[in-house]
Amino acid sequence: MPIFKPSQIAHSIYEIDGDALQRAGIKGIILDWNNTLMKKNAESVSDALITWLKNFQSRYAIKLIIVSNSKPPTQENVLINEIPALFEAGKPKKKAFINALNILGTRRNETAVIGNGIITDLWGGNRLGMYTIFVSPSWTKPHFIGMVKRLVVKVLRV
Ligand SMILES: [Mg+2]
């Protein structure tokens, strides 16, 4: 099931190795919002997260954009002042990713998608030939495979 297979897996975004991404020629990252950058319903942004984002931008010269299917947050959120964001983006539609690439100014093969959504982020990014990083705090291999199997069964039934 290669279309659901991530290029890389991480328990959290902090595990992602910027040096390795830079070596792989990654110049832009499309970041999911809910449960990737922000825990669902979380109100504040941690200093660690801001440091992580700034590090990617300055140290690795990797451009970042948030692409989320959610509505924009109602409360002020410092992340949105730091990096561009597309909300209600309609992932996994190709248009959602192409809009992001246009803003980043990067090609598909030099852009990574980081997210916790198997369809929205992994499949969406993979089918455009982008590098995909699956972020899941509860990641275990059997769990993931079971999840994909159930998903495929669901899709086939539709
Ligand atoms: Mg998500």
What does this structure look like?
GO terms for molecular function: phosphatidylglycerophosphatase activity. It holds the Pfam family Hydrolase. This is YqeG family HAD IIIA-type phosphatase. The chain has 158 residues and is α/β, with parallel strands linked by helices. The chain has a single domain, classed as HAD superfamily/HAD-like (Rossmann fold), CATH 3.40.50.1000. 39% of the residues lie in helices and 15% in strands. It has helices at 18-23, 47-59, 78-82, 94-104, 118-126, 141-157, and strands spanning 8-10, 28-31, 63-67, 85-86, 111-115, 131-135. It has a six-stranded parallel β-sheet with strand order 1-6-5-2-3-4, sandwiched between helices. Strand 2 (28-31), helix 2 (47-59) and strand 3 form a beta-alpha-beta unit. The longest helix has 17 residues, at 141-157. The chain is globular, with a radius of gyration of 15 Å. The two termini are 18 Å apart. The structure holds magnesium ion. Magnesium ion is lined by residues 32, 34-36, 115-117. Magnesium ion binds next to loops.
